[in-house]
Amino acid sequence: MSEGYSILVDTSKCTACRGCQIACKQWNGLPGTATKNVGSFENPQDLSYQTYKIVRFSDGKNGDGKAYWNFFSEQCRHCLSPGCMAAAENDEIVQDEKTGAVLYTPATKKLDFKATLEGCPYNIPRQDPKTKQMFKCTLCFERITNGMIPACVKSCPTGAMQFGERDKILEMAKKRVEELKKKFPKAQAINPDDVRVIYLVTDDPKKYWKYAAGK
Amino acid sequence: MTNHWIDLKNSDCILVMGSNAAANHPISMKWVQRARDKGGILISVDPRFTQTAARADIYAPLRSGTDIAFLGGMIKYILDNNKYFKDYVVNYTNATFLLGDKFKFEDGLFAGYDPKTKKYDKSLWALKKDEKGVPERDMTMENPRCVLQLLKQHYSRYTLEKVSEITGTPKEDLVKVYEAYAATGVKDKAGTIMYAMGWTQHTVGVQNIRAMCLVQLLLGNMGIAGGGVNALRGESNVQGSTDQALLFHILPGYLRTPTVNLANLESYLKVVTPKSVDPKSVNWWQNAPKYVVSLLKSFWGEKATKENQFGYGWLPKLDIGQNCSWLNLFDAMYAGKIKGFFAWGQNPACSGANANKVRQALGKLDWLVNVNIFDNETGSFWKAPGADPKKIKTEVFMLPCAASVEKEGSISNSGRWAQWRYKAVDAPGQAKPDGDIVVELMNKIRDLYKKGGKFPEPILSLKWDYVDQKGHFDAHKVAKEVNGYFLKDVKIGDKEYKKGELVPAFPLLQADGSTSCGNWIYCQSYNQQGNNMARRKKDDPTGLGLYSQWAWAWPVNRRIIYNRAAVDLDGNPWNPARPLLKWAEGKWVGDVPDGPAPPMSDPKAGKYPFIMKPDGVASIFGPGLADGPFPEHYEPLECPVPKNIMSGQFVNPTIKIFTGEMDKHLTCDPRFPFVGTTYRVTEHWQTGIMTRWQSWLIEAHPQMFVEISEELAQLRGIKNGEKVKVSSARGEVECVAIVTTRFRPFKMGELTVHQVGMPWCFGWMVPKDGGESANLLTPNVGDPNTMIPESKAFMVNITKA
What residues of chain B lie within 8 A of the CB of A69, using their CB? Predict the structure, then answer.
């Protein structure tokens, strides 16, 4: 299945304003969790059953000694062939035909969490420790099936996030990578043929987030 | 902003310096990105590698407080390499003007300095004028006493070597920035600056911005699409608050507050009305009497008559030299000279520089009224950690007020757009809109004055009819009053206006009492056509993003001010690809022009472009400021270097230094060896009053932190994420250390200087382990022109907690 929708996350335009992270919490009615500063702007520290999206901050030095600060707005990739579904037996996890959204139903509480998590190349699924139900980004299914764009995309001030029909997003990604390559030879789209949430990076994906391109 | 947010998209080179726009003005990056999509270059100059730097094409670090050295080097680069836009500089600036014989500059001081008063006699900086009073010019700019030559001479000292040694910026980075930015000094390129508190909060704050004005004038970047000098305002309506004069030194519309020596209206009008004998100079401020009288008519209505000088005598007057700005007010409060205080929509216990002194000062009050949407560290200062409520006599009143979405009214953004907002929901509980609180308060004051009291006339004569039928504050009535009315039937030219009609625009205001206007620059915002601020049309005929029918911009809906400088002498746009204005078939097409006069080359009616300046041209030589006509590098009051290598004058010679027990400053002191600075984060607003209670935002940025370099961390044995103590001569704050490659030690000649940075959005009240305000560390010393505190450059120590 390759029709449906896609999101483009062009990290070369991302300013880490975290509008997407907050918009995700707001739309999904998720609470703010208790956090501490552990020596980074990044918070919360990880995805959870109450946090479907985090902006990852990664700083360091390039070969020329100059600093970099990379931002990676992490979320479920909505894979075309979702690895997490391998552990599912009876529609606990469904892939919506029209949109391509990969959705966790309340029945995910019956699934083996470890196996589900291991099946995901990007370390996305999380479990409510009480109910055992699993949660992650829904591609804002209820929004995109009602004529709206995902909350995170809506909040993005710079156009770093785009939402649209998959073929158009793929085309947009291809064009943008070509542009970026002039200045950043390592520019690439991460696994565009496998995922619906396509990240564009201008350097080694590992310099953004350890699971940016998969485990 | 001389331009506006959307106009950023028209720029070829965007310099972000003295601000971190990506973090603090996130939406601006939408337009910056549009510029970059078309090949525009983004430059970030900042002590820290910020979110803006992360997106920039060029990043250059600089030590906090050395921006004038950096920009002085750029001015020298532009002049040395003939990168300036000559036609523009010759015709539209005072570069050709000659200076009088008394002006000089020696070893860091301009002519006329009096070390006793720490003030300059600015008459020594006067331009040379002929017997008629017209400034003398040398259009070849070769005369050694012309402004351009003096400018060259002044900045000849700002060599790459010296600049690099002061700023800590590597020479190759200086050159990269200078080259890229100076490339906009041609007809068809525009460069712009986005600055904020990183430039203003210094003892040389105003001169930082002046230095950039010089760059922009030399490169012909003023008045054009994609250019300008753009202050990114830190509050959504801070532009509106200065326009409406929420400051001690001005009346609405930037008219100066009268002083006691100006005892009558005539003497006041004389000083606020500049004169020009040059027929080509519009000298718009010659209209000041119309705006002053209309303002007085607005204040006092029918009680303002020609006989009583329209109530001028009722206006409060400042003593000569009196300065009622923030630092002085809190100094007076600390000294027990102020009895009562309204903290209205603010949180001085966390936002004020040297916040310990502020908190002590609050305890000297008899009463404090805290108007806010939440409790804060100011209203609850008496129960702060370390405070003893038994010993604090101040009576505190908490007045809950409506949030922005709970009331109707206008809001003026950085780009001078006044946008009308409707009310979305009622305020909860007993919270009231600020307007209602003001109305109720003033009603009560008037009742009390009716029973007696000294000098009741100004209070009881006030025109005071801004409520609706139910007695509630009526934002529309106020907005109309601000716009102004005809107070009698008048005929102007061949047009008749009826008494009670709203004035179409400020050119029709009168000095005879026949019009009222609460703020002349807002005249046209709400006239007979309706509430122009509420307009929402998206037409954009120029394609430049002016959106002239969306809301309304002051003055007279001009979207880019000084736009008469966007064209050549014949009225053709310098850059035909971005035609902001064009003289075509006897009229201007494009933006609302800065005056309707024909282009400058018209021998009869042609006018100079900078109509607000008495001489009609922009000031490269600016003799109006307290600390000099050209910006000069001085060290911050607290700095890490033993001397100023640019001159024998260590710090700005005109600053006021407070000398009380709470006013400590230590420079080059081994106990405080590191440069400190403060900034904001996207997630928190100002002192965090509105955001620290918000769970998603506090989740994202939960605790006070300090960013330090890996090198400094190693020096002090500090690990990433550890608790540390940051201290200054004035206080200390516990922080979580963020050890990062994004701060680097500055190599300044032989010296290595470390810098650290902290956000100022936290306070003891909430959240529980959030930490304290960075303003416990900052110094209460101000810029000599504005008295804004030097919160961006001071000295600290950092140790493990």
Answer: 49-51, 53-54, 742
